[in-house]
Amino acid sequence: MPVTEPAPAKVNLALHVVGRRVDGFHLLHTLCVFTELADLVSAAPARKDMLHVSGPFGADLPNGRSNLVIRALEKFRARFPGHLPDGIEIHLEKHLPIAAGLGGGSADAAALLRVLARLCETPVADGEIFALAATLGADVPMCLLSQPCEVTGIGENIAPLPAFPHMHLVLVNPLEQIATPDVFRRLEHKHNPPMPDLPEPLDRAALLSLWLADTRNDLEAPAIELVPAIASIVDAIATTSGCVTARMSGSGATCFGLYGSAAAAHQAAHDLRERFSGYWVAATPLLGQ
Predict the structure, then answer these.
(1) DSSP state, 4?
(2) pTM for the whole thing?
(3) What is the tens place of the pLDDT at every residue in 67-85?
């Protein structure tokens, strides 16, 4: 039987760019949450390694080495030789748009690492899996965790939040892909103030709302230069009933609204689909709620 793991979408509720290292990597301070909306990754022993991609956005993805899922498999085999069957057949069901600021590729790779750990004939320690995840990209370790967390550095410092309020999201993407390096190249100020201290515990929607009012996404303005539709999407989300916060996630172009109830989120999604008929719109609870 195949082993299956979800690859939840990652949403940056706030994203501050606070510096740049000498090697060119940008230093971030971000609050990340994850959604029940997810890609699905499954795998089973086979005669040889194979990747099949399906789903609404499957046609947009390659199934060769340029896919981060294949690189995750190769690195897992290299780091843990003899732990896996000789062949692994992987099926990636792609429900999240590509290059959308939702960490989709990183989430897929992280989900595969969880699958491979379950398929191992010899157990592998969690710390070893996280170390491997860090070699695949800055977002992969936090996607491996897939719970609300405060992240600093280039993504390597992850502090899980012990509590988080029950919230819902509406996600809107204009179906225009954005390359993250292009956004960072247009970022005018690379040394900005960090996020304010998080309330402890962060367990009520009102606390989160007040805190978010003093935060931002530093990548939103440069992303709007590439995809001007982002600005009108954020404005439209902000006018929906019950919206706590509206802004762009990650490097875009997906924008989100944060809501206190499923009813408000689903009504907002309905209204936004009517306004943006050609866009991808989805309502989803945060993961684990």
Answers:
(1) E
(2) 0.95
(3) 999 999 999 999 999 999 9
